[in-house]
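Q&A log
Question type: sequence-to-structure
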Amino acid sequence: MSDEIESARIQVFGADPRHAELEARELREVLHGLDGVQVRFAPPEAPRVTEGAKGAELLTPEVVLILTTGTLALARTAIKAWVEVRKSRKVRVVHSDGTVTEFQGGVSGREVKALQDGQGDRPGIGPGDVR
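Response status: OK
Response body:
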Protein backbone atom coordinates (compact mmCIF):
# COMPACT_ATOMS: atom_id res chain seq x y z
CA MET A 1 0.00 0.00 0.00
CA SER A 2 1.27 3.44 -0.89
CA ASP A 3 1.75 6.26 1.61
CA GLU A 4 0.68 8.76 -1.05
CA ILE A 5 -2.21 11.03 -0.11
CA GLU A 6 -4.92 11.62 -2.73
CA SER A 7 -7.34 14.51 -2.74
CA ALA A 8 -10.43 15.44 -4.69
CA ARG A 9 -13.08 18.14 -4.83
CA ILE A 10 -16.60 16.82 -4.41
CA GLN A 11 -19.35 19.02 -5.83
CA VAL A 12 -22.74 18.19 -4.31
CA PHE A 13 -25.73 19.55 -6.20
CA GLY A 14 -29.21 20.24 -4.86
CA ALA A 15 -32.52 21.72 -5.92
CA ASP A 16 -31.47 24.97 -4.24
CA PRO A 17 -28.52 26.16 -2.12
CA ARG A 18 -30.10 25.04 1.18
CA HIS A 19 -30.83 21.56 -0.19
CA ALA A 20 -27.29 21.27 -1.57
CA GLU A 21 -25.84 22.17 1.83
CA LEU A 22 -28.01 19.60 3.64
CA GLU A 23 -27.00 16.91 1.15
CA ALA A 24 -23.31 17.88 1.44
CA ARG A 25 -23.47 17.67 5.24
CA GLU A 26 -25.02 14.21 5.02
CA LEU A 27 -22.38 12.99 2.56
CA ARG A 28 -19.63 14.50 4.72
CA GLU A 29 -20.89 12.46 7.69
CA VAL A 30 -20.91 9.28 5.59
CA LEU A 31 -17.33 9.90 4.46
CA HIS A 32 -16.17 10.76 8.02
CA GLY A 33 -17.07 7.17 8.95
CA LEU A 34 -14.40 5.77 6.63
CA ASP A 35 -10.91 4.98 7.96
CA GLY A 36 -8.21 7.40 6.88
CA VAL A 37 -10.60 9.84 5.19
CA GLN A 38 -10.67 13.53 5.95
CA VAL A 39 -13.39 15.67 4.44
CA ARG A 40 -14.20 19.35 4.95
CA PHE A 41 -16.17 22.11 3.29
CA ALA A 42 -14.20 24.07 0.70
CA PRO A 43 -13.91 27.79 1.37
CA PRO A 44 -16.53 29.74 -0.56
CA GLU A 45 -15.41 31.04 -3.91
CA ALA A 46 -15.52 34.75 -4.65
CA PRO A 47 -18.91 35.57 -6.17
CA ARG A 48 -18.95 36.00 -9.91
CA VAL A 49 -20.29 39.37 -10.94
CA THR A 50 -21.74 39.58 -14.41
CA GLU A 51 -22.75 42.75 -16.14
CA GLY A 52 -26.43 43.45 -15.60
CA ALA A 53 -26.68 41.22 -12.51
CA LYS A 54 -28.70 42.64 -9.65
CA GLY A 55 -26.03 41.76 -7.10
CA ALA A 56 -23.18 39.45 -6.27
CA GLU A 57 -25.32 37.40 -3.92
CA LEU A 58 -26.62 34.97 -6.52
CA LEU A 59 -26.50 31.51 -5.02
CA THR A 60 -25.73 28.31 -6.86
CA PRO A 61 -27.26 24.99 -5.82
CA GLU A 62 -23.82 23.42 -5.30
CA VAL A 63 -21.61 22.83 -2.26
CA VAL A 64 -17.98 21.74 -2.55
CA LEU A 65 -16.26 19.33 -0.17
CA ILE A 66 -12.52 18.63 -0.10
CA LEU A 67 -11.65 14.95 0.38
CA THR A 68 -8.21 13.74 1.45
CA THR A 69 -7.43 10.04 1.81
CA GLY A 70 -4.81 7.37 1.24
CA THR A 71 -6.96 5.82 -1.48
CA LEU A 72 -10.00 7.17 -3.29
CA ALA A 73 -11.41 3.72 -4.13
CA LEU A 74 -13.27 3.23 -0.84
CA ALA A 75 -14.48 6.84 -0.79
CA ARG A 76 -15.68 6.54 -4.40
CA THR A 77 -17.66 3.40 -3.51
CA ALA A 78 -19.24 5.15 -0.50
CA ILE A 79 -20.15 8.20 -2.60
CA LYS A 80 -21.73 6.03 -5.29
CA ALA A 81 -23.79 4.11 -2.70
CA TRP A 82 -24.91 7.36 -1.03
CA VAL A 83 -25.93 8.95 -4.35
CA GLU A 84 -27.93 5.95 -5.56
CA VAL A 85 -30.32 6.12 -2.60
CA ARG A 86 -32.17 9.16 -3.90
CA LYS A 87 -33.02 10.12 -7.46
CA SER A 88 -32.39 13.82 -6.83
CA ARG A 89 -28.77 13.34 -5.75
CA LYS A 90 -25.97 14.39 -8.05
CA VAL A 91 -22.27 14.51 -7.24
CA ARG A 92 -19.25 15.41 -9.35
CA VAL A 93 -15.79 14.33 -8.13
CA VAL A 94 -12.91 16.35 -9.57
CA HIS A 95 -9.68 14.42 -9.03
CA SER A 96 -6.33 16.13 -8.48
CA ASP A 97 -5.21 15.08 -11.99
CA GLY A 98 -8.21 16.89 -13.52
CA THR A 99 -10.32 13.83 -14.32
CA VAL A 100 -13.98 14.05 -13.41
CA THR A 101 -16.36 11.33 -12.22
CA GLU A 102 -20.09 12.06 -11.99
CA PHE A 103 -22.70 10.13 -10.03
CA GLN A 104 -26.46 10.57 -10.50
CA GLY A 105 -29.06 9.18 -8.10
CA GLY A 106 -31.06 6.10 -8.95
CA VAL A 107 -34.59 5.09 -8.16
CA SER A 108 -36.14 6.86 -5.19
CA GLY A 109 -37.09 4.95 -2.06
CA ARG A 110 -40.77 5.58 -2.78
CA GLU A 111 -40.37 4.10 -6.27
CA VAL A 112 -38.55 1.04 -4.87
CA LYS A 113 -41.38 0.46 -2.39
CA ALA A 114 -44.01 0.83 -5.13
CA LEU A 115 -42.12 -1.66 -7.30
CA GLN A 116 -41.80 -4.11 -4.40
CA ASP A 117 -45.53 -3.78 -3.70
CA GLY A 118 -46.24 -4.47 -7.38
CA GLN A 119 -47.79 -1.12 -8.10
CA GLY A 120 -46.59 2.16 -9.52
CA ASP A 121 -47.43 5.78 -8.79
CA ARG A 122 -48.03 6.48 -12.45
CA PRO A 123 -48.90 4.54 -15.59
CA GLY A 124 -46.11 3.30 -17.79
CA ILE A 125 -43.62 2.76 -15.00
CA GLY A 126 -41.38 0.64 -17.18
CA PRO A 127 -41.10 -1.85 -20.00
CA GLY A 128 -43.67 -4.61 -19.99
CA ASP A 129 -46.17 -2.59 -17.98
CA VAL A 130 -49.49 -4.35 -18.47
CA ARG A 131 -52.79 -2.96 -17.26
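Response note: The helical segments are 17-32, 72-84, 109-116.
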